[in-house]
Specification:
The structure is a single chain. This protein starts with a strand and ends in a 16-residue tail after the last strand. With 215 residues, the protein is α/β, with parallel strands linked by helices. The strands form 2 sheets. The protein has a 7-stranded mixed beta sheet with strand order 3-2-1-4-5-6-7, with helices on both faces. Strands 8-9 form a two-stranded antiparallel ribbon. β8 and β9 form a beta hairpin. It has 6 helices and 9 strands. The chain has 2 domains: 102 residues, Rossmann fold; 108 residues, Formyl transferase, N-terminal domain (Rossmann fold, 3-Layer(aba) Sandwich), CATH 3.40.50. It binds glycinamide ribonucleotide. Glycinamide ribonucleotide (GAR) binds next to α1, β5 and α6. The site of glycinamide ribonucleotide has 14 residues, from α1, β5 and α6.
Length: 215
């Protein structure tokens, strides 16, 4: 399955996806394009270093969400992208984009949704005083971090945490979970009924190793 990755920043999730692909842990998913809405970000350097076609579509250069999303769709179509991963992509997408990839867009979010959607989720979690934080990978719908949940991992909040230390702990899990979900998507193992996503067992998975940690 041909995957386009949308990014906006540091690209540590993109790095995790590229690393998984390099060791054969993403197949049959294949990253064929990376698009950033921000110029000059580290994610673009990572894409280039991995030899992936990378483009910048600066949302500020467009007259609104719809023309921006049409340009995004065209950029992905040029690489025959079949599914999209939002890996730290900090723009809300509308039906213009979402309807082009039904149940083929996944996002990773650094909170246990439906708690703390939107921006600065680790800081929101700390302000609320939760004891468990985590990461959610979900299908994207037209809301903000509201789509059907595919997989979650929890991490503890520790005394003395600030947003950066908590986010770093969340990202350790995120960097494992996102590639595993992308692989499962490409394998056709994600079955969405209403809001519930079932994950079929990995082909050949035995008792010993559900290596993708999803079931
Ligand atoms: C990730 O932790 C991702 O979950 C979060 O941004 C970070 C990007 O890191 N996304 C959101 O908050 C979306 N609402 P990265 O650029 O290093 O992958």
């Amino acid at each position: 399955m041909r995957i386009g990755v949308l990014v906006s920043g540091r690209g540590t999730n993109l790095a995790a996806l590229l690393e998984a692909e390099a060791r054969g842990a993403l197949a049959p998913a294949e990253i064929v394009a990376v698009v950033s809405n921000r110029p000059g970000v580290r994610a673009l350097e990572l894409a280039a270093a991995a030899g992936k076609p990378a483009a910048v579509l600066d949302h500020r250069a467009y007259a609104g969400r719809e023309p921006f999303e049409r340009a995004l769709l065209a950029a992905l179509a040029a690489h025959r992208v079949e599914a999209v991963v939002l890996a730290g992509f900090m723009r809300v997408l509308t039906a213009t984009f979402i309807d082009a990839f039904p149940l083929r867009i996944v996002n990773t979010h650094p909170a246990l949704l439906p708690a703390f959607p939107g921006t600065d989720a680790p800081a929101q979690a700390l302000r609320h005083g939760v004891k468990l934080a985590g990461v959610t990978v979900h299908f994207v719908d037209a809301g903000v971090d509201t789509g059907p949940i595919i997989a979650q991992r929890a991490v503890p909040v520790r005394p003395g945490d600030d947003a950066a230390t908590l986010h770093a702990r969340i990202q350790v899990e995120e960097h494992q979970l996102l590639p595993a979900v992308v692989r499962a998507l490409a394998q056709g193992r994600l079955v969405c009924e209403g809001r519930t996503v079932a994950i079929a067992p990995a082909p050949g998975a035995g008792d010993a190793a559900d290596a993708d940690q999803l079931v």
